[in-house]
Amino acid sequence: MKQTKGELMSFNNFLSTSENRQVSLTFAREGASKNSNMVGILFIMTIDPAICFKSSIPYVDVSKDGYFKDNEAEILFTTHTIFRIDRIIQIQDNHTDRLWEVKLTLVGNDNHELNTLTAHLREELGRETGWSRLGYILIQVGESPKAEQLYQILLEKASSDENRAEYSHQLGQVYNDMGEYSKALSSYEISLEILKIALPPNHPDLASSYNGIGIVYSHMGEYSKALSSYVRSLEIRKIALPPNHPDFAQSYGNIGIVYKNMGEYSKALSSYEISLEILKIALPPNHPGLAGSYNNIGSVYKNMGEYSKALSSHERSL
User: Fold this and answer.
1) Do 130 and 45 fall within a single domain?
2) Of 28, 97, 105, 163, which shows the fewest CB atoms inside 10 Å?
């Protein structure tokens, strides 16, 4: 968190807060005291009611219903309320040396960084429709078994080659996430064969299939086959897509992974750096994809023994 001052953060659950500093400090102190591997954090939040009203951010005063009644002065905020991290300082405390104060400011829906990131996420989700959108969400939240059940049902009921190819492709991703690589490879190859018949030879969907096959081969340790699939995917994308399309970043990033696993670190670094430059253009500045790219570059520098550069890249990732 100390590396992200000035950035945005949110809480993925309902947020119970108190206007009584001592109540919150007590909870933070107890958390730090019970476990030597943890720190206690006292969040100090600046809330502008006008922003809550303008951005439709629900909150409610539950002080009369809280455990400590009026002494707690509890305010409850909705899930995923977003704040900016303003300042982080250590609290001098007689009970523990693992107590910190983090000052946050509520961010409204008119925040430029938030709107940029939200628009990008909506664009990603907008590629899927109907039941496929539900399957996509299940994959993203780690519910692969449920996604598998859904796509199997959709595949059985599919009435067109387009749908059969799509659902087979998604099953490939699901099986890959579950570590069932033989099933993943079979599903991706079924999708690819359908698409080869139904689509022009340089259609971007073919590139996605080759990319999926490459991912599976990479996980299986068959790096030569993985590299061949990734290169074929990249060749199609160079013909089918405009320059600096984010899919190029995926291709170069995956090629970098293979080269790294093969011990060809200079080639891996070059691929990762190309991927990063594309992501800088294609993604908002706070997108986690950038963090992953910096982390990949740092791991290569580490393997090359250039520890100062590795540390710099990993810190940028944070």
Assistant:
1) no
2) 97
Q: Contact, 269 vs 241, CB < 8 A?
A: no
Residue 245 DSSP code:
-
* In the predicted structure, residue 188 carries a pLDDT above the cut 70: yes
pTM of the model: 0.63
**Burial label, 34 (beta-carbon count in 10 A; 0-12, 13-18, 19+):** exposed
Residues 96 and 120 in one domain: no
pLDDT tens track for 92-133? 887 778 888 999 888 876 655 556 655 555 555 555 556 677
In which band, very low, low, confident or very high, does the pLDDT at 148 lie, cut at 50, 70 and 90?
very high
Instruction: Give the pair of three-digit tokens for residue 223.
Output: 């790096």
C-alpha pair distances (Å), 279 with each of 120, 173, 257: 12, 22, 16
Tell me how many domains the chain contains: 3
**Is the separation of the CB atoms in 99 and 28 below 8 Å?**
yes
* Whether residue 121 is found in the same domain as residue 223: no
Q: What DSSP state is assigned to residue 178?
A: T
Q: Enter the tokens of residue 36.
A: 């030597």
Instruction: From 270, 300, 275, select the one nearest 290 (Cα to Cα).
Output: 275
Write the burial class of residue 210 (CB in 10 Å: 0-12 exposed, 13-18 middle, 19+ buried): buried
194 and 205, same domain (yes or no): no
Six-digit token pair at 38?
A: 């943890």
